[in-house]
Request: fold
Amino acid sequence: MNAADRRIALVTGANKGIGLEVARQLGKAGHRILLGARDKTRGLEAARALQAEGIDARHVALDLSDVASLKAAAADIEAHEGRIDVLVNNAGVAIQGDGLPGNVDVDVVRRTFETNYFGTIAVTQALLPLVKKSSSGRIVNVSSGLGSITHNADPDWPYAAVKLTGYNASKAALNMFTVLLAAELKDTGIKVNAVDPGYTATDLNGNSGHQTVAEGAAETVRVALLPDGPTGGFSNSEGVEPW
Ligand code: NAP
Reply:
């Protein structure tokens, strides 16, 4: 594919885990990859790994909790690529000490929201003007089944025991952000969707997930590549997921 014809995809938190694999799969599908990472050394290393696989990739410094870095990233992309076709809001945290609502440390909940919710809003706002320059922008928010209020209310759900007050609620909030943003952008070509990767072996869970990162990235990539299709939805690899 001619470099000028490539769609441009920015993936946040792309130096490892599901984000790196989403970047790899979008790169293999012919996208130019802007590999968002807050740590320069880790970001450059990941970009080099993708380049070695023949992928058109470069690192973009981006920390969700640092507004100055978000502004600088937007200016950098404006100057070099001029637009973003696919924004994958993948960066997220699960913080040690998260737990039941009756006694969880409120600071853990607050710090989880700082990245997963406030940070995702901040990065989306910083980059939205560039997504609006795409003829068919896509925003994919990497959520979680743990963010489904329907699942959390079902005592028979396989993950019903995972009651993380900060993490689960931050992903439920991210789902709300998805629906609100999709509604705001409904008259543009931009589709906004939330995706549940499924339980995937990464550093986030001490590599306890039963899926590989290739499996964990698949639904995000599918939704990012949809030529047309739904907006304001929530899905996993088996189909529509309940809110
Ligand atoms: P991971 O391997 O721990 O990767 C998380 C990524 O987010 C890392 O690149 C990390 O950067 C980055 N990040 C964290 N805080 C950031 C910040 N303030 N600014 C910029 N980047 C930041 O976890 P993962 O499992 O791949 O998670 C990716 C996404 O999938 C998350 O949103 C997670 O909630 C979601 N998810 C995961 C699972 C699962 O089973 N793994 C299931 C459902 C949903 P550093 O390397 O610098 O820390």
Q: What stands out?
A: The helical segments are 17-28, 40-52, 67-80, 106-131, 149-152, 165-184, 213-225.
